[in-house]
Design a protein that fits this description.
This protein has 103 residues and is an all-alpha fold. It has one domain. 50% of the residues lie in helices and 0% in strands.
């Protein structure tokens, strides 16, 4: 059981992991900050904040653009995010909430 105030883990995250924290975890996998087996289950917000800053530092190196990633990181990005989207869709996520306010 996860303690209150801690992260459930990307595998147990709401919307099949399509949350802000889920994106941080996937991006940490892309940049090799965490092994792809690390779900971050039980992490507190302070630890997740440190990870967010590490992920942001990595993205800054590439202008925050997938197209600027070197080929190996771009391939890893595409693979990890495609798998994440597939798992989320299986869990019932459809992406509509993310675009509800767009006109």
């Amino acid at each position: 059981m996860v303690k209150p105030g801690t992260y459930a883990g990307i595998d147990k995250d709401a919307s099949g992991g399509m949350t802000s924290i889920g994106k941080i975890v996937r991006d940490a996998w892309i940049f090799g900050l965490l092994p792809e087996t690390e779900t971050c289950e039980g992490w507190d917000l302070g630890r997740l904040d440190v990870l967010l800053h590490q992920v942001n530092d990595e993205w800054d190196k590439y202008g925050c653009m997938v197209s600027s990633l070197p080929a190996d990181l771009r391939e890893r990005h595409d693979r990890i995010h495609a798998a994440g989207i597939s798992r989320a869709k299986e869990a019932g996520w459809d992406g509509e909430k993310e675009t509800d306010d767009e006109v």
